[in-house]
Specification:
Layout: H1 14-20, E1 24-26, H2 29-34, E2 48-51, H3 55-67, E3 72-75, E4 90-93, E5 101-105, E6 110-113, H4 119-126, E7 131-132, H5 145-151, H6 158-161, E8 168-174, E9 180-183, H7 188-195, H8 203-216, H9 219-228, H10 243-246, H11 262-265, E10 274-281, E11 283-284, E12 289-297, H12 300-310, E13 317-322, H13 323-329, H14 333-336, E14 348-356, H15 359-375, E15 384-386, H16 390-398, H17 400-403, E16 412-413, H18 427-440, E17 445-450, E18 457-462, H19 467-486, H20 505-509, H21 511-524, H22 568-573, H23 593-598, H24 605-618, H25 628-634, H26 642-646, H27 653-668, H28 672-678, H29 680-686, H30 691-697, H31 700-709, H32 726-732, E19 743-746, H33 750-754, H34 757-769, E20 773-775, H35 784-788, H36 792-809, E21 816-818, H37 821-828, H38 830-834, H39 837-847, E22 850-852, H40 853-862, E23 876-881, H41 884-889, H42 893-899, E24 905-909, H43 928-937, H44 939-944, E25 951-954, H45 957-967, H46 974-980
Parallel strand pairs: 2-4, 3-4, 19-20, 19-21, 21-22, 23-24, 23-25
Antiparallel strand pairs: 1-2, 5-6, 6-10, 7-11, 8-9, 8-10, 12-14, 12-15, 13-14, 13-17, 16-18, 17-18
Helix pairs in contact: 8-21, 12-18, 18-19, 34-46, 36-39, 40-42
Length: 983
């Protein structure tokens, strides 16, 4: 693939490298910008971004960088918190191609994997073998084994499983001289052979063995290590290179443990070596019974004292969640559902995990532990969460990092001292002193994470857009480094040094040890090719920050109301780079369908937020949105709303995209195809009396010509209009039944009125049979087609009129229900944000009175007005696919409840995200292939695996069309399934 070189007069011939690679090399401004940040506070433009396809590509990139005095920055998921994957060299992204599980030996309990294998997906692969890779980070659904090795990741259960280092057996990859090498356990004889130049791939390999022998043979160095490295009792120790651990192996110690450079490579952050294959130790699968005792406390200090009591019962993990995070979960759509175990407003919760062979064993431990804590006045509420429900608690805990971006304004919980680790017995005193230091500077701090192993992720709230905030960034880092040293702790427990903590290593370990680190770096990498400026020779920790002191935050007049986020730019800045949008279809959820299909960073929510932030901040144009590069990155956003609920930071990319497009239209006008799509209801209205003519123009040879010339794919047919509109039918239809439950108002949206009339008819008949008279109020189209194309001026007009009509036509004690999720949920989602002043308050009130028909029926079921007695006893199997908006703004729980009204219906969810159609997206010529690829991830295969007799449920009109096109199966709206199931 060829890409325009935007590096003016570059002295490095990137074009020659591009031509050598089987993979891709990008050096345009946009792609470089998307890789200029990670999940840290840092930003630096890389020279280029490489997506290698083969090991030979990686070798060529290393040789090129070495020959041209550049550098190579290995990158996996890009969730580093200390700036490890930010730099000015060539970013080498292994997440797209190096994703194979190469082999598993269930007898020896080992696995060879490529560095781009996702941790959770490895464990899914191992599950049938009853095996497990132990270390588990909060990012485990997208973090990759290569990154876990680079940072020596630990995770929640490190009290049992330790760090990645303990499970790294062998590693293959490239030295800085470009030679491929394997590191693993060596006998004393094999070690000496390496030192003598036997069985080495190059002189460089011999040199690194000779050097390490010299360093580790010194008794002075051993004393130096004992005196200056963190306490041996601290399992989480990632400060610098792990010489203190390497010296405790043969031939330097009287031990059975063989020498293995893997101990040094783990935690080296890609500064010494580029890995291409990794051999891991595996452990037996987790015990079958699990529970979390979620103890509530009135203070952090009380929780930390209770942590020491909990450890007496050998828990599998103990995780702290403080009140800041708990408060953030209240406003997050997804995480608010996971608060079921929280009582009142605790200052802290300890989630204490027990995995055992029986539940009785767990219950006994929980009771004994509660009794001990209560006897010491520790904790006031001790709920126990069992089995699958524990996943909700873990999801809430893991969302901590992203949730912290929800704090409004420019002051955020910053990663600067978030990785300190001390002896767990020192933790209460350490945190007390820590908070005293912050209090002296009038700062607050978030506390969460790994209480069991003496590491809390501590994040002071700072504004890095101000000179004062940036100064505090350094001051706090320095103050806490001295405090950690006082307790002989580790400044980095698992997140690494990177460019954030590297300059503090001389303070933490002493200048002599730091010089040894520098010598190791120079011997392994004499050309400074591998990830320079990390661990050693780091630039000052308060340089190359994402935000500049004193920078102006652009205030832009918007069509949507972004006041809750303090404006449009701050809404984009809520993305902190944690990369939750990089999870794949195997992890479940909706966000982000285009990334799931392409595995391309460019198509993540993170990338879109990054490009929007950078464009608004740095563009000098009067209309900052008049930027084709910006539109290109936003192009594959399907506006599915998955990020609105699943992104812990609540980044609503559909809203941001629509806002961007309206501003773009203000300068450039609306493109013809978008006008056609937005105005589809008007076109339908014109053809309402002659639908046959409309249908003729969308079918056959004529249809293909029209579709081709207007930018629609010819690989699928456009939807057909019904013979009669729903509005016309309902006026003539005489409803029959005993309306014991009174009347209900049904919204006649633009999809129901022109395309899904039969479903509307069925809904009316179903409601009649269940005891409701249906009233169809005079409320106009939802504006969904305009919203989908960012035509917000028109959408606002519609919203304002619909709010007025709602108030005028629907009594205050009544609600409005809808059949098409994307239409009825406009009242709940976009309308309040499109309105201002009094109208906004009215819109918020109306939002609470609009429901999906599934939600309404489920509520009526709960209140006893409908029951299973109205439905058949026949057995049926139903697979249900939820609409994206339904999943993001509502829930699939009501849908499943009503589909189970027939008591012998077996209802199973299809664990799919977006179907891929997304309104007009899948009909657009350039989007057809990606649309079908998204469908093929989970939805299509799941349906094809079902027998013809299985009923397929899909609430969305686009979903039903996509299913038909992708599987040749007809999906039914839930109301149709229920109507057919009536007795």
């Amino acid at each position: 693939m060829k890409h325009k070189n935007s590096l003016a007069k570059s002295t490095i011939n990137l074009k020659s490298l591009e031509n050598q690679l089987e993979g891709k090399l990008f050096y345009d401004h946009t792609m470089r910008l998307l890789y200029a940040t990670d999940a840290s506070a840092y930003k630096e433009m890389p020279l280029a971004v490489a997506i290698p396809k083969t090991k030979e590509d990686i070798q060529k990139i290393i040789d090129f960088a070495r020959d041209n005095k550049s550098s190579v920055i290995p990158r996996a998921a890009g969730t580093s918190l200390a700036g490890q994957v930010v730099g000015n060299g060539i970013i080498v992204d292994i997440s797209q191609e190096f994703t194979k599980i190469l082999s598993v030996d269930p007898i020896k309990k080992t696995a060879w994997v490529e560095p781009g294998v996702i941790r959770d997906e490895l464990n899914l692969h191992l599950k049938p073998l009853q095996l497990f890779f132990g270390p588990e980070t909060s990012t485990s659904n997208r973090c990759m084994i290569g990154g876990m090795v680079g940072n020596n990741a630990c995770g929640a259960r490190s009290v049992v499983y330790g760090s990645t280092r303990e499970h790294l057996l062998e590693i293959k990859g490239f030295l800085a001289d470009g030679n491929e090498v394997t590191f693993g356990a060596l006998s004393n004889a094999e070690f000496e052979e390496k030192c003598s130049g036997i069985n080495v791939v190059s002189p460089l390999e011999q040199e690194i063995y000779v050097q390490i022998k010299e360093i580790l043979s010194s008794n002075e160095n051993r004393i130096l290590f004992d005196d200056n490295f963190p306490k041996k009792s601290i399992a989480r120790r990632n400060t610098g290179y792990a010489l203190d651990l390497l010296i405790d192996s043969k031939p330097f110690s009287d031990t059975e443990e063989k020498f293995n450079f893997c101990k040094l490579i783990a935690g080296s952050e890609g500064t010494l070596f580029f890995s291409t294959a990794i051999k891991l130790n595996l452990v037996d699968a987790l015990k079958p019974f699990s529970a979390l005792v979620c103890v509530h406390f009135d203070s952090i200090n009380e929780a930390l004292k209770a942590n020491l009591e909990a450890l007496k019962f050998s828990p599998n993990s103990v995780e702290l969640i403080d009140h800041y995070i708990l408060e953030c979960t209240k406003e997050n759509i997804e995480q608010s559902k996971n608060r079921f175990f929280v009582k009142d407003d605790p200052k802290a919760i300890l989630a204490i995990e027990f995995l055992r062979d029986t539940q009785d064993e767990i219950d006994a431990l929980a009771k004994e532990m509660e009794a001990l804590m209560r006897s010491k006045n520790l904790g006031y509420h001790f709920p126990v969460v069992y089995g699958e429900e524990t996943n909700k608690v873990w999801n809430l805990r893991k969302a901590g990092l992203g949730l912290l971006s929800n704090i409004p304004g420019d002051a955020k919980a910053v990663a600067v001292i978030e990785d300190t680790a001390v002896d767990v017995n020192d933790l209460p005193d350490f945190i007390e002193e820590f908070n005293s230091i912050l209090k002296e500077r009038n700062l607050n701090c978030v506390h969460y994470a790994h209480a069991a192993t003496g590491e809390l992720h501590l994040r002071p709230i700072l504004n890095l857009k101000t000179a004062e905030g940036t100064a505090l960034f350094r001051t706090i880092a320095t103050d806490i480094a001295h405090l950690v040293k006082k307790y002989k702790g580790s400044l980095s427990g698992e997140h690494g040094d990177g460019r954030l903590r590297g300059e503090f290593i001389p303070l933490m370990l002493g200048e002599e040890i730091y010089q040894l680190f520098s010598q190791i770096k120079h011997t392994w990498d004499p050309w400074n090719v591998f990830n320079p400026g990390k661990i050693v020779n780091t630039p000052p920790m308060d340089t190359s920050l994402r935000y500049s002191p004193g920078q102006i935050t652009a205030e832009i007049e918007t069509y949507f109301d972004f006041s809750e986020q303090d404006g449009l730019l701050r809404a984009a800045e809520m993305c902190n780079g944690s990369g939750d949008c990089r999870k794949t279809e195997k992890s479940g959820g909706t966000m982000c369908p285009s990334y799931m299909a392409t595995r391309n960073e460019k198509h993540t929510t993170r990338a879109r937020a990054n490009i929007l932030r950078e464009t608004i901040t740095n563009s000098t144009q009067e209309n900052k949105f008049d930027d084709e590069g910006l539109l290109d990155v936003l192009d594959l956003c399907l506006s599915c709303k998955g990020c609105k609920s699943e992104c812990p930071s609540n980044v609503d990319m559909a809203k941001l995209k629509a806002e961007t497009f309206q501003h773009y239209y203000n300068k450039n006008g609306v493109k013809f195809r978008s006008l056609l799509i937005g105005n589809t209801p008007k076109i339908n209205e014109l053809f309402a009396s002659i639908p046959w003519l409309y249908n003729l123009s969308t079918k056959g040879f004529l249809g293909k010509i029209i579709q081709s010339t207007t930018g629609f794919t010819t690989k699928r047919a456009l939807p057909s209009m019904s013979k009669v509109t729903f509005a016309k039918w309902i006026k003539k239809h005489k409803q029959q039944g005993n309306f014991v439950h009174g009347s209900i108002y049904l919204y006649n949206d633009e999809f129901l009125n022109y395309y899904d009339v039969e479903i509307g008819q069925t809904a009316v008949k179903l409601l009649n049979r269940l005891g409701y008279q249906v009233i169809v109020p005079e409320i106009g189209i939802s504006g969904r087609t305009y919203l989908s194309k960012g035509m917000l001026i028109k959408a606002r007009e519609i919203a304002e009129k619909n709010i007025a009509d709602f108030i005028k036509t629907i009594p205050a004690d009544k609600v409005l229900i809808g059949i098409e999720p994307s239409a009825i949920l406009s009242f709940r989602d976009e309308y309040p944000d499109l309105c201002r002043g009094d109208l906004k308050e009215k819109a918020r009130g109306i939002a609470k009175r609009t429901f999906l028909i599934e939600e309404f029926l489920a509520k009526e079921l709960e209140e006893g007005r409908i029951s299973s007695t109205s439905f058949t006893n026949k057995e049926e199997r139903v697979r249900m696919h939820g609409h994206c908006f339904q999943k993001a703004l509502s829930s699939l729980v009501p849908l499943k409840k009503i589909l189970m009204l027939p008591k012998n219906y077996t209802v199973l969810n299809i664990p799919s995200g977006c179907c891929g159609m997304a309104g007009s997206f899948g009909y657009e010529k350039e989007h057809y292939d990606i649309s079908m690829k998204i469908g093929e991830l989970v939805l299509f295969p799941s349906i094809r695996s079902e027998k013809e007799a299985t009923l397929i449920s899909a609430s969305g009109t686009s979903c039903r069309h996509q299913i038909a096109d992708g599987t040749n199966r007809k999906a039914a709206h839930p109301v149709s399934i229920l109507y057919n199931a009536l007795k």
